[in-house]
TrEMBL record:
Domain 4Fe-4S ferredoxin-type: 76-105, 108-136
Lineage per the UniProt record: Bacteria, Bacillati, Saganbacteria
Keyword Iron found: yes
Listed name of the protein: (Fe-S)-binding protein
InterPro entries assigned: 4Fe4S_Fe-S-bd, 4Fe4S_Fe_S_CS, ACT-like_dom_sf, Fe-S_Ferredoxin, NIL_domain
One Pfam family per UniProt: Fer4_21
Keywords: 4Fe-4S, Iron, Iron-sulfur, Metal-binding
GO molecular function terms listed in the Swiss-Prot or TrEMBL record: 4 iron, 4 sulfur cluster binding; metal ion binding
Entry annotated with the keyword Iron: yes
């Protein structure tokens, strides 16, 4: 069993199609919708955690791409600008999954683990220098 966090970008002609449903029926996958923004006659964006047998996950992602849906790993869309980061740790206390954490207690250096991130965006507002961005 494997899980993969991905970002789907739907063109406007695909948002009313049951493509995500096909992942269950055709590829025996399950998914958790972590975030979605879908508006009729516009593009749609969805963050999913896709779970199933490794081969089926790969086949499901291939199917989505064949349907004209852009598929990217979630980690590509989470950006921390370390040059802007002041290491204030405000983001650490608000992060519900521990994706943002203190790497070294001696230096109080902040680190980011994209595998734990669920793109909840709670870290964006408390960041004084606006060093954290989420792009979908």
């Amino acid at each position: 069993m494997t899980a993969s966090k991905i970002v789907l970008n739907f063109p406007k002609d695909k948002i009313d199609k049951p493509v995500v449903y096909r992942l269950i029926k055709d590829f025996d996958l399950s998914f958790n919708i972590m975030k979605a923004s879908i508006t009729p006659d516009q593009e749609g964006h969805m963050v999913l955690e896709l779970s199933g047998e490794a081969g089926n996950v790969d086949k499901g992602i291939k199917y989505l791409k064949e349907q004209g849906i852009s598929v990217e790993p979630l980690s590509k869309d989470i950006r921390v600008n370390w040059d802007k980061c002041s290491q204030c740790t405000a983001c650490v206390s608000i992060c519900p999954t521990g994706a943002l954490h203190i790497k070294d207690r001696a230096t109080m250096e902040v680190a980011f683990d994209s595998e734990k991130c669920i793109a909840c965006e709670l870290c964006i507002k408390p960041c004084p220098p606006r060093a954290i961005e989420v792009h979908f």
